[in-house]
């Protein structure tokens, strides 16, 4: 009879440990899910207020990024609540913007004539007009 009591006591202890482990895992998963739900939205414009469609918005130090829509609007789910966003667009100076807990950002980029010098288009060869089209 003594062995039965010891066996029941061990089952009870293991059951409590199993429940405690499940609670710890559940709590860990909930905190991770909450940390990834930080959404920041906004718009990207030039200095005159013209939207910049296709502007790139990337969370610094990650591969997490989005592209602005036709009206320059974006929405990004951040990995880190205190992230820094890097905003870039061809022909404009890239900008870094700290989120600092904000959920709405209006980002303005300034034109950069020097970055246009980086684009080179080269065409070689000739063709007769009827061969092209």
Automatic annotation (TrEMBL):
<protein>
    <submittedName>
        <fullName>Carboxypeptidase-like regulatory domain-containing protein</fullName>
    </submittedName>
</protein>
<dbReference type="InterPro" id="IPR008969">
    <property type="entry name" value="CarboxyPept-like_regulatory"/>
</dbReference>
<dbReference type="Pfam" id="PF13715">
    <property type="entry name" value="CarbopepD_reg_2"/>
</dbReference>
<feature type="signal peptide">
    <location>
        <begin position="1"/>
        <end position="35"/>
    </location>
</feature>
<keyword id="KW-0732">Signal</keyword>
């Amino acid at each position: 009879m003594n062995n039965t009591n010891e066996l029941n006591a061990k089952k009870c202890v293991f059951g409590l440990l199993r429940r405690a482990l499940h609670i710890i895992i559940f709590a860990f998963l909930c905190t991770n899910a909450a940390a990834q739900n930080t959404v920041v939205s906004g718009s990207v414009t030039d200095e005159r207020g013209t939207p910049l469609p296709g502007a790139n918005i990337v969370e610094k130090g990650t591969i997490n990024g989005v592209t602005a829509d036709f009206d320059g609007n974006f929405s990004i789910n951040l990995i880190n609540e205190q992230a820094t966003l890097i905003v870039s667009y061809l022909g404009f100076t890239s900008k870094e913007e700290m989120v600092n807990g904000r959920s709405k950002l209006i980002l303005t980029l300034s034109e950069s004539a020097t970055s246009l010098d980086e684009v080179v288009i080269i065409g070689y060869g000739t063709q007769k007009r009827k061969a092209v089209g």
